[in-house]
Amino acid sequence: MGYQERIVFPISSSLDRISIGAKRPNADDVRIIGGRGYDLRQPIPIKYQAVRERFLNARNNFWTPNDIPMGEDKKQWLTGELTDAEMWLFKTNISYLTASDNLVPDNLDNAIIEHITASELRQYLRWQIAEEANHLESYLFILESFGLDEQGQGQIFNLYQEVPELTNKLNWNLQFTNNVVSSEAPVGSLEAHRNLLEDLVSYYVFEYLFFPIGFSQIFALAQAGKLRNTAQQYMYIYRDETSHAQNGLWMILQIIRENPILWNVAMQERSRAIINEAVALEAAYAKAVMPNGGVVGMSVATYIEFAQFMANSACRNLGLKLLFPVKSHPLPWMSHYELKQEVNFFEGRVQDYRTGSSLDWD
Ligand SMILES: [Fe+2]
Ligand SMILES: [Fe+2]
Question: How far apart (Å, rounded) are the C-alpha atoms in residues 321 and 121?
Fold first, then answer.
């Protein structure tokens, strides 16, 4: 069915009134975007079983920030064990990530979910929004646990509105969200779906590139014995973001499979350009947060190389030509911070959150 016909038969929307006697959807009709003629409140048929499994898996792995002890970091914070460069890196990091963990669910909420016409994917994305809220809680909990009052926390959180290189990365994502929201293209039209796909590529950049390399700054400090409790919080966030990125990639690829017309040469070039822009923003950001060239275990140059490595990997995942000549992973120790469900990197200090029964709800 062409795009024109789909405009004649309206795309299913969560704003549609429920009508008596409407037919139940048929799996052949269900699509990730542009599904039509069925009510979105129907949870079946489940066409994309893997997405439902991702939802169940995410729910089974829910964790809570206040179960991670923060005493060692608090001591380091209060006794001045962090150098000025490490302090600046940490402060800009947590400010930027906090704003990011607002932007990503806002993008889902304001722009993306309204276009999604598969119930199981809407379910997963709703759960993801809850996880992003939990990440925000983690950042708050970290600063609270250092003993900072509201004014002290506010000075740190506000840096994204003070350091242009932080602001630029965030505004870069907002332009894609706003393109979807403010477009006058009819829902389900080719233009609306092109805007959405561009937004999804920028969303994928956030989950797959901006977040992990942001976390790497704190993991570099942990490598040097600094802020290891904060690093534990970040390990859980990292695990969540990895799942979000996997789902995001799947979503993009499935949309392309179902709508090959969207993935023309121009869109492929545009996607590659978006990833390239992201690395340029990341390079400027690196210099602003590490003005002296880096900290122990992390130089500006290595950081930029890591961004390029992840950009190449994103290109490869999307079937695009690579952008940079980087061959090997510039920070091989990142794998130590990839939390598997049973692995406790910091010797028994992190509980196993796999099941609710292992949690201590006091
Ligand atoms: Fe997040
Ligand atoms: Fe995420």
Answer: 29
* Ligand closest to the CA atom of residue 107: 2
- Between the CA of 109 and the centroid of ligand 2 the distance, in Å, is 13
pTM: predicted TM-score of the whole model, two decimal places: 0.91
- How far does the centroid of ligand 1 lie from the alpha carbon of residue 31, in Å? 26
Question: For residue 226, what are its two tokens?
Answer: 């600094």
Whether 160 and 96 have beta carbons less than 8 Å apart is answered as yes
Domains (range + CATH), the chain: 49-358 (1.10.620.20)
CA of 220 to the centre of ligand 1 (A): 20
pLDDT tens-digit profile of 194-234? 999 999 999 999 999 999 999 999 999 999 999 999 999 99
Q: Which own/partner contact pairs does 147-154 have at CB distance under 8 Å and 24+ positions apart?
A: 147/74, 147/77, 147/78
125-178 pLDDT, tens per residue?
999 999 999 999 999 999 999 999 999 999 999 999 999 999 999 999 999 999
Q: Ligand 2: distance of its center to the CA of 241 in Å? A: 4
HSE, side-chain direction, 13 A CA sphere, residue 340: 4
For the CA of 138, the nearest ligand: 1
| Distance (Å) from CA 211 to ligand 1 centroid | 8
Locate tokens 């906090």: which residue?
98
